[in-house]
Amino acid sequence: MSGLYGIIGWPLGHTMSPTLHNWGFRQSGADAAYAAYPLEPDQIPDFMRRVRDEPFLGLSVTIPHKRTVMEFLDHMTDRAVRVGAVNTLYWDEGKLCGENTDVLGLIAPLRHMQPLPASAMILGAGGAARAAVVGFKELGIADIAIANRTGEKAEALAEEFSIRAVAWESRMEEEPALICNTTPLGMSGTMETFSPWDAKRFPAGCTVYDIVYNPLETRLLREAAAVGCGTVSGLEMFLHQGLAQFRLWTGKDMDEAGARALLLCALG
Ligand code: ATR
What we know:
Largest sheet: 6 strands, mixed
Distance between the termini: 32 Å
Strand order of the largest sheet: 2-1-3-5-6-4
Bound molecules: 2'-monophosphoadenosine-5'-diphosphate
Strand content: 15-25%
Order of helices and strands: EHEHEEHEEHEHEHEEEHEHH
CATH class of the largest domain: Alpha Beta
Shape: globular
Radius of gyration: 19 Å
CATH superfamily of the largest domain: Leucine Dehydrogenase, chain A, domain 1
Structural class: alpha/beta
CATH topology of the largest domain: Rossmann fold
Number of strands: 12
Number of helices: 9
C-alpha cells in the first residue's frame, strides 16, 4: 500500500487528522502520506473534478465542504445519504464514494454499553445533531428526543427522522438515559464557561456525551461526573471517526490505545 491521502476544509488550522493518520501509516509500515489541503468553497468544484486524475487514495472532508462534495461523487453509502453529509471519500472499484464516519465515531464509544440507553436527548440541531440522530437510530435507541435553541430546526429534524422535538426551555424536564451535546456551549474560547444542562438536574444514572473535545473536559462533563453520571468525551468521537476512515482506506485497524494517547498528547 502506498499513496496520498489528505483532508479538505476551510480553515484547517486546528486539524489533528494529519497527526492521527500519518502515525497510523507509520505504525502499519505503509508507504503513504496524509496532508492538509485548505480549500475555500469556490475551489471545491475544480478540486473535485481534478481529484479523479490525482493519486489520492482517500480524503477526509470537513467543514464547510461536507455537503458540497456530494454532487461530485459516483456513490454514497446509505448512512451518508441519511445524514446528508460526507466526511470521507474513498475508491471502490474505480468509483469515487462518500461515507460518513462521524456517525460511526459518534456511536463507537456507546456500542459496549450494557444495557444500551433506552432514551437519548440530543441538544442542538445542526450537522453534528443529524449524525447523532442517524447514529442513535443505527444503535437501536428507541426513544430519541431533540431540543434546539431555534425550535423550528428541532421540529424539522423530528419530522424528518420520526423522533420527538422538545422545546429548548423544557429540555431538563425530560429524564433521558443519554444526553448528547452537539452545540458549541462549553467550547474553549467564549463558550468555555457555559453548559447546556443545569448541574442540579441530571437524571440519576444518565450518561452524558459531549462532542466538544476542546477543552477535553467541558463544564458539562465536569458537572455530570461530579454527580456520578457516566461521561463520554468528544475526543472519542474524533478518534473513532478517524479509525473508521483508516479501516476504510487500508483495510487495517489502527492501534486504538496508541492513537488515543497520541491525540491526548497533541491536545496538550
Ligand atoms: P454543527 O455542524 O457542529 O452541528 P451547526 O450546524 O452550526 O454546527 O449547529 C450548531 C448548533 O448549536 C445549532 O443547533 C445552534 O442552535 P441554533 O439552531 O439556534 O443556531 C446551536 N447553538 C449554537 N450556539 C448556541 C448557544 N449559545 N446556545 C444554544 N445553542 C446554540
